[in-house]
Amino acid sequence: MAEAKETLRAYYAAALERCLEVFGQLDAEDWQQAAKPGGWTARHYLGHLVTSQEVEGTPATVQSLAGQPVEIPGLSQPGGIDAFNARNLETVRDLSPQELIARLRAAVEEHLRLLDGASEEDLQRPATNPGLRWPITVQTTFDMYYLHLPLHYQDIRHCIRKRRSIPHWAELASPEEIHDSMDRTFRLMPLMYWPERGGDLRATYLFDLQGPGGGQWTLEIAERRATSYPGRPERADIEIRTTPAFWIDLQTKAANPLVAMLTGRLRLKPLRRAGLVARLERLFEIT
Question: pLDDT tens, 121-151?
């Protein structure tokens, strides 16, 4: 277990330094770019990384480690997360990208210090987050905010890609790091499940991610709950085959699933169950 904590700590710290190095190369015009008209700019994503860590991630971790109920002012239920994020962005709208980058470093380093001081017993403690629908552990809180970095790095990359090319996350990370992040991502997916959208759905998904850092993961939906585990199921209703890098692109909407299917970058088996894949975005929407 100590090794697992050290792995998380190493990858989390590396993710921070990777973001800081690349973000420091962007200029004022880069930060104003958006992936689509009216959407968040690269600067919005940077501000969100800062405020979500400062206002939600670190306070929730501190309270959970202290055995206290998690209370985040302004956030009481998952349905309020978009408005909560928007209000927080307003508090940093006058800061320059350089100021936001400095605050991102300070916020994540504070979270890393909390991880350093947490015992294995601490990490397994029950925890809550008002932005989630399901119970979590303290470990989950660290996983979530570690994965926040590559997720929004990719969003920023998507925003500026017509003006400047920066490396894909999968080009910078080692195969071991990619596999670890994919494993944590699939373990966290059930926590993002919207049962009111799934209704009486029963389905088993097999994700077969091939290439460096890849692996196989199963996601099962039944009885208004979702569960996940590494490996293959006895029987899958739909098999989704792609690469880890392209799966990240699909998650961050940097790639079009239909185009990906037509070009062979995304393969579904059987194709007639493609509707199950089309439902994933709304069933596991992250805001």
Answer: 999 999 988 888 888 999 999 999 999 999 9
Do 142 and 219 belong together in one domain?
no
Cα 39 to the chain's mean position, in Å?
19
d(CA 97, CA 47): 8
The secondary structure element, H or E, covering residue 137 is strand 136-137
Q: Please tell me the distance from the alpha carbon of residue 125 to that of residue 120, in angstroms, as a whole number.
A: 9
Task: Please check whether residue 114 is in contact with residue 65, taking contact to mean a CB–CB distance below 8 angstroms.
Answer: yes
Could you read off the pLDDT of 189-207 as tens digits, one per residue?
999 999 999 999 999 999 9
CATH of the domain at 73: 1.20.120.450
Print the domain residue range for 58. 2-167
Q: Are 55 and 134 contained in the same domain?
A: yes
* 113 to 62, 92, 101, 109, 267: CA distances (angstroms): 11, 24, 18, 6, 42
> Helix or strand or coil: residue 2?
helix
| Whole-angstrom distance, CA of residue 141 vs CA of residue 57 | 7
| Whether 134 and 223 share a structural domain | no
Q: CA geometry: angle at 59 spanning 131 and 135, to 5°?
A: 40
